[in-house]
Design goal:
The protein folds into two domains: 103 residues, Urease, subunit C, domain 1 (Roll), CATH 2.30.40; 304 residues, Metal-dependent hydrolases (TIM Barrel), CATH 3.20.20. The chain contains twelve helices and 18 strands. The strands form three sheets. Strands 1, 2, 3, 4, 5, 16, 17 and 18 form an eight-stranded mixed β-sheet that branches. The chain has an eight-stranded parallel β-sheet with strand order 6-7-8-9-10-13-14-15. Strands 11-12 form a two-stranded parallel ribbon. α4 crosses α6 and α6 packs parallel to α7. The structure holds zinc ion (ZN) (2 copies). One zinc ion binds next to loops.
Length: 424
């Protein structure tokens, strides 16, 4: 059925400063009307009383593992997990095998997601060939092939001269340079430097490992005018520097991983390697500073850094791979920040949808304007559920939230006017 009528939802769209109860009519993949008591004889009707309707989420940081590590995740499973989490646009990190350093791999990502057809995958091209940090890739050809940004994520770009060149080149092409900011000489260990690393006797990755690269990249962005996006910022000092350079007018944006907003290094004591991630969980004072950054606008968006790993890769802390899955848990985690009184619904939706869409220059998502493509999500902020065998749609299960009670559930995800996820 090509017509869909969603009735009596609380409609929230920060792009229009809209927050009211009403109906949304979708026709031929686009938003046809927003109003009260809309009527359409042939439409499929969703009674949405008591639920929230907003633009579907845009995730600037996803590891699809496809191509090359499909035992962890593939385009189909990541698409399903994404839509179950309310996301319809994913920016895919280039640390695949082969990496996204050629137009062929970039096109493979775009086309594979199109074939599955339930959400959009946009590749982030590698900054350097083979993600080795030695030689820049051909940004122009990557852009032609659909890449929206450039990063070597999984690894930092350590060479300052290459970073400067990358920012200048990307500026000419209108592309965004993203960096995983952790100096790999300082970040030789496994978890945050602090009480837990001393207690467990595990080598650490100090906050300074992140901060020195954040400082360098902010300076280079300020000096070149090239657009920089700092990935998964995790320390109070990183945030202060980003705030400082933003105020000076540097074209800088940054994202935060929801786990860094709700967990500290102490989580390692109960969740073990399921709480291991790079950059690592920090101290309470860092967590509080990140929440302040959400409130004052220093942080632009929430991005999941969805990073699936097989169970055998998540053994002992020292030997396990870093990262956790996060597409299905992002919404309940963000809602927790609302329940704790830190942010409003309007701000949450801005952080998860409108702002990332804007940073990426995407006009067909991140808003509910009449005439726009109908990319939206309907959720119940209070429904309780568990992420476990029968609800998890990722191929992996590495998260400290496994089998824990979550509050807030996506009921419907709509992509280009089609229902691509429905809670049953
Ligand atoms: Zn990273
Ligand atoms: Zn990542």
């Amino acid at each position: 059925m090509s017509k869909l009528l969603i009735r009596r939802a609380r409609i929230i769209d920060p792009s229009q400063n809209l927050d009211k109860v009403g109906d949304v009519l979708i026709e031929k993949g686009r938003i046809k009307a927003i109003g009260e008591e809309l009527f359409e004889l042939e439409a499929q009707v969703i009674d949405a009383e008591g639920t929230i309707l907003c633009p579907s989420f845009v995730d600037m940081h996803v590891h699809t593992r496809d191509p090359g590590q499909e035992y962890k995740e593939d385009m189909k499973s990541v698409s399903k997990a994404a839509t179950a989490g309310g996301f319809t646009t994913l920016v895919c990190m280039p640390n695949t095998n082969p990496p996204i350093d050629s137009p062929e791999v970039a096109q493979y990502i775009v086309q594979k997601a199109e074939q599955i057809g339930i959400c959009r995958a946009i590749p982030a091209g590698a900054l350097t060939k083979g993600r080795k940090g030695k030689e820049l890739t051909d940004f122009y050809r990557l852009k032609e092939a659909g890449c929206i940004a450039l990063t070597d994520d999984g690894s930092p770009l350590m060479d300052s001269l290459l970073m400067e060149r990358a920012l200048k080149l990307a500026k000419q092409l209108g592309m965004l340079v993203m960096n995983h900011c952790e100096d790999d000489r300082l970040a030789y260990g496994h978890i945050n430097e602090g009480y837990v690393s001393s207690l467990l006797g595990i080598s650490s990755r100090p906050p300074s490992a992140e901060e020195v690269l954040v400082a360098r990249d902010c300076i280079l962005s300020y000096r070149t005018g090239g657009r920089l996006h700092v990935q998964h910022v995790s320390t109070a000092l990183s945030l202060e520097m980003i705030r400082f350079f933003k105020e000076k007018g540097a074209p800088i944006s940054c994202e935060v991983n929801p786990y860094h907003l709700l967990f500290t290094e102490e989580e390692l004591l109960s969740s073990g390697s399921n709480a291991k991630v790079n950059p690592p969980f920090r101290k309470e004072e860092d967590r509080r500073a990140l929440i302040e950054g959400l409130k004052d606008g220093t942080i632009d968006c929430i991005a999941t850094d969805h990073a699936p790993h097989a169970p055998w890769e998540k053994g002992l802390l020292e030997s396990s791979m870093p990262g956790m899955i996060g597409l299905q848990t992002a919404l309940p985690m963000a809602l927790e920040l609302i329940r704790e009184g830190h942010i409003s619904y309007m701000r949450m939706i801005e952080l998860m949808s409108c702002r990332p869409a804007k940073l990426l220059g995407l006009e067909d998502c991140g808003n509910l304007k009449v005439g726009s493509k109908a990319n939206l999500v309907l959720f119940d902020p209070d429904r309780e559920w568990y992420l476990k065998e029968d609800t998890n749609l990722s191929k992996s299960r590495n998260t400290p939230l496994w089998n824990k009670k979550l509050r807030g559930k996506v009921l419907y995800t709509i992509y280009e006017g089609r229902i691509v996820y429905r809670d049953v």
